[in-house]
Design brief:
heterodimer, A: 329 residues, alpha/beta, Rossmann fold, 10% strand, B: alpha/beta
């Protein structure tokens, strides 16, 4: 597969940004929560679901998307948001509950909305699926060559919303791509205990649409599968279901005791790290020098640092803002 | 209210006309739902739209409420103005997550950056022996959840003006019509549910109650079918010299608290009538409004008449026992005046 250099740059930079972002967040999240863990304490209160390890799904798909294509994500949304180009400073401020955040602190980490780049997400498992179909319906009705993507976990594929959304999208031939991130666990329940079949991609057959399984946590493999699916949607040929085998390095949420998986599982998974894999590919391609790659890494780190600094320096909303924005004029 | 027209329509036709006129005016408006195309809507609220606008803008959906209500939200987020019919409001249970966790909250979560300009349309009400999964009103439930406007018309005139306002609103509006008021040939027809409706488009602001009958002795506040029962009761009571003011809220969200308070200040007595459940609902909200803002004007304790916290039963005598009607309102008003 011939991937343009600019795309490799974008994917690598975004993967590193995501990784650094999530690792930074994991540290910052603990501020004020030690030695006694209190979920409501510290600069980043509330639940925190991190996506380190799951970068390939987000960047492999979003590399094909345009600014006006729509993405709807999940309760674990940072990697999708970063790959879709959500304003990182405003996103981080939102996660800190600051007035400079995307939603002026009203949504927090599970409810990020950036209409500039058509990104949204939801804390309810599977809710994004019919919503993305509806966005695709809007594009189709207006005859715009735009595509909607719903990202969701393998746990969401057991929701009614999954089946209803796929049926509608297939029935109406909507320009939408459904992407299942199989990170192996629906919170604590492993896939073989939640799902009657081994591969959700096979469920596409029930709706007469293509189902593609990407069995490796690899950005280029995702990029290839997503390219065909998105092109197909843009051509007006209807939806595709893609399932990607991926890994979750952190717990379901920060503070998860992870009693449901072997202690050494993550260490083993990290040996097959997707960022290193892409880096190796880039070096072997002869298109990049070590220094160039180090430059991309430095750029990503700086962006993350700036975003966190912006969030920390920002003010909290005035409490009276709690009463605003239930309705618009 | 003086309506300057002699043309009379059923509520079903008034709603369908409102939708058609908005679809002509605004290409972003479209309709989706179960049986809303060829069938014209189980309650005829979309009658004739398919012929006029074709299947691309009048979309029959599978029986898949989470799917198409979620899709309506997605379409609204990307610039369309969908009207999605849920058929019976009772069916909202199967897609409640999309309604109350998403449609109602995305504007707030985004601090107003995301608009959700959609209309959810549904039928409510009993009195025709359909039992407890097809006869509820539930408007109090949705009015309780922040982020939804809730419209409950009682006349064809109001139905048209409120529908046009609902479609033009940039927020999600739940538009609930009462089956018994639609003028359907297959239900007991209430004589005066066919009413004057101007042909040209017009709006009625959401959040403006309407005095359907002026009176001085007691205020009866209600919506939808309750308004008809109250008007019938008022005609009976007038024979005994009792002047009843009938206030039709028309929308539960926004709630016209000022109109409630002003009426009670005039009549000094309040009866709230609702075909929804009694506890934690519209009657309690109206009573609390008066208790908080006009208690000193009351000459008698507030009375409430609503479904007494039981599911709607099937059998005729059972159902008639739990639903408000004119004789029950007459009795309640007399108790108010004698207390």
């Amino acid at each position: 597969m011939n991937v343009p250099k600019s795309t490799l740059v974008q994917m690598y930079r975004d993967m590193v940004t995501i990784r650094v972002y999530e690792e930074t967040m994991a540290q910052v999240y603990l501020e004020g929560k030690q030695p006694v863990f209190n979920i409501a304490a510290g600069p980043v209160p509330g639940e925190m679901h991190l996506a380190a390890g799951q970068e390939p799904v987000a960047v492999g798909v979003c590399a094909h998307l345009r600014k006006d294509d729509a993405v709807v994500g999940t309760h674990r949304p940072h990697h999708f948001a970063i790959a879709k180009g959500v304003d990182l400073k405003k996103m981080t401020a939102e996660i800190f509950g600051k007035v400079t955040g995307l939603g002026r602190g009203k949504g927090g980490h599970m409810h990020l909305f950036d209409p500039e780049v058509h990104f949204s997400c939801s804390g309810i498992v599977g809710a994004c699926i019919p919503q993305a179909a509806g966005m695709a319906l809007a594009f189709k009705m207006r005859k715009e060559p735009r595509v909607a993507v719903a990202f969701f976990g393998e746990g969401a594929a057991n929701q009614g919303a999954f089946h209803e959304g796929l049926n509608l999208a297939a029935l109406w031939k909507l320009p939408v791509v459904f992407v299942v991130e199989d990170n192996g666990y629906a919170i604590s329940v492993p896939k073989h205990k939640s799902t009657a079949i081994a591969t959700n991609a096979d469920r596409a057959a029930a709706y007469g649409i293509p189902g593609v399984y990407v069995g490796e946590n690899d950005a280029l493999a995702v990029y290839e599968a997503a390219g065909e699916a998105i092109a197909r949607a843009r051509r007006g040929e209807g939806p595709t279901l893609i399932e990607v085998k991926t890994y979750r390095y952190f717990g379901h949420f920060q503070g998860d005791p992870e009693v449901y998986r072997p202690k050494d599982e993550v260490a083993r998974l990290r040996e097959d790290d997707p960022i290193q894999k892409l880096k190796n590919h880039m070096l072997q391609s002869g298109l990049f020098t070590e220094a160039e790659i180090a430059g991309l890494e430095a750029e990503a780190k700086q962006r993350v640092e700036e975003a966190f600094a912006f969030a920390r320096a920002s003010a909290y909303p005035d409490p009276s803002e709690a009463l605003m924005h239930v309705f618009v004029d | 209210m003086a309506v300057q027209t002699t043309r009379k329509l059923t509520m079903a036709k008034a709603i369908a006309e409102a939708i058609a006129q908005e679809m002509e005016r605004d290409p972003r408006v479209f309709v989706m739902g179960e049986d809303i195309g060829v069938y014209g809507g189980i309650f005829s609220a979309t009658d004739g739209l398919l012929e006029k606008f074709g299947p691309e803008r009048v979309i029959d959906t599978p029986i898949s409420e989470t799917g198409f209500i979620g899709a309506a939200l997605g379409a609204a987020a990307e610039g369309m103005r969908p009207i999605a019919e849920i058929m019976f409001i009772d069916f909202a249970g199967v897609c409640l997550d999309q309604i109350y966790n998403h449609i109602a909250k995305n504007t707030y979560f985004s601090a107003g950056n995301v608009n959700v300009p959609l209309v959810l349309m549904a039928a409510a009400g009993g009195g025709y022996n359909d039992a407890g999964q097809h006869s509820q009103c539930l408007w109090g439930l949705f009015a309780h959840l922040p982020g939804l406007k809730v419209v409950v018309p009682s006349t064809p005139y109001d139905a048209k003006g409120l529908m046009i306002s609902a479609i033009r609103d940039n927020n999600p509006v739940l538009y609930i019509f009462h089956k018994g008021l639609m003028g359907l040939g297959w239900m007991t027809l209430i004589k005066d549910t066919t009413g004057p409706v101007p042909e040209e488009p017009y709006t009625i602001p959401l959040g403006k109650a309407d005095v359907k009958r002026e009176g001085t002795d007691v205020t009866v506040v209600s919506v939808a079918m309750g308004v008809y029962h109250a008007l019938e009761a008022a005609r009976e009571l007038e024979k005994e010299g009792i002047q009843v003011e009938v206030l039709d809220l028309r929308t539960l969200v926004p709630l016209d608290r000022e109109a409630i308070i002003n009426s009670v200040k005039k009549t000094h007595r309040l009866l709230v009538v609702d075909e929804d459940y009694l506890s934690y609902g519209m009657t309690g909200e109206v009573a609390a409004t008066v208790a908080e803002h006009a208690l000193e004007y009351l000459d008698a304790p507030i009375k409430r008449l609503a479904v007494p916290d039981v599911p709607i039963p099937f059998s005729r005598p059972l159902e008639q026992f739990v639903l408000p009607d004119a004789p029950k309102i007459v009795a309640a008003v007399k108790e108010l005046l004698n207390s």
